[in-house]
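User: We ran a pulldown and think these components assemble together. Before we commit to crystallization trials, I'd like a predicted model of the whole complex to look at. Sequences follow.
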Amino acid sequence: MRVGELSKRSGVAIATIKFYVREGLLPPGLRTKANQVDYSEAHLRRLRLVRALLDVGELSVATAKRIIAALDDPDESPLTSIGRAAYALARGFPAAVPPGADDNARVGALDLDTASVTRVNDLLDRYGWTVRPDNPARAQLASAIAAVQALDMGDALDLLDRYAQAAHSVAEVDVELALSPATLEESTERMLVWTVVGDRALSALRRLAQEAVIIKRM
Amino acid sequence: MRVGELSKRSGVAIATIKFYVREGLLPPGLRTKANQVDYSEAHLRRLRLVRALLDVGELSVATAKRIIAALDDPDESPLTSIGRAAYALARGFPAAVPPGADDNARVGALDLDTASVTRVNDLLDRYGWTVRPDNPARAQLASAIAAVQALDMGDALDLLDRYAQAAHSVAEVDVELALSPATLEESTERMLVWTVVGDRALSALRRLAQEAVIIKRM
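Assistant: Here's a predicted model for the assembly, 436 residues in total across the polymer chains.
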């Protein structure tokens, strides 16, 4: 199809499609004549994936590029392939450095104290979760724990177990869903999209449920 | 205390503290002499809150400002006060428009079709959750649903109920935790921090559990 049709079917403006191609988020179309470029169904699908990552997942273009790259170079084993994509995702959380902040402040704030890291390890042991040492979600969890402790909300951490149980029940569903397609490529794509979109869905559901719980209590 | 001590105790560089004051994230210290400004324990606490919002919550400075403003102007009822802060949070998700994208593309992508909105309403009805019509989490959930449907992953939506159950179990803990302090101001601050930090913790736990589930299956 021509770029106009791709734009119409995806709801993405032509200028934006060209921007994605320039940025490497979308492979270029096939040039069939001097001034005609053809796009396939695969382009449409990829375009929808890019929009899900950018709009729903609210990832940066740079992170989306890393994820797309991991997708386009699938590994031989599901764990490695899915894991690599998931790790690219975790590393890609937008930098939180405000303009004017210096590097030291950032490093200081993200320095993970031993207590928080131990807390993460204890939790993994308690639930018997085997997780590779380089999984970036370890540091993500430790930084959340450190922040809660810095704010004298240490009692909040006792509730972490309820969080862990909820997360596990959700993760079982995630993996089941991801492993259902026939090909590894599709599995990885599903795991990725569902991880990104699922975070948004879970966060929205949590806010809705919070309000419902508060209203019920009044 | 002087700015140097505030910097030391918080682990935040002096230049960054001054940036926060300039941006209205931190109230200015009290000028006691011509060249001496004093900061209190309240400043230290606020500084830790700002870091939690920016570093752990990875919010933009603009969003953090809106949240701080909601905190500094508490309402009379817990629901209104906590709700206002939570809504400021939801509205503040960073814009997902890549440079080069035009407004039309954004509007098109975020346009919520009736089917997704109906799905959200059905879910709220099914669980008996009372949620105000202007709660921005409704649109957040609908956009996640629309994205999944656009990617032909409609079967993923059957799993939304497991997500809703997990979110509700977490929300009960959240509200319990938030309502435990004596003052409304503290309750609102707790709800806010824990909502932001809890999202990060939940997302990290989900990734850890996903890997554990995959490893177990292999």
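The first helix of chain A runs from residue 3 to 10. That may be worth checking against your pulldown data before setting up trials.

User: Thanks, that helps.
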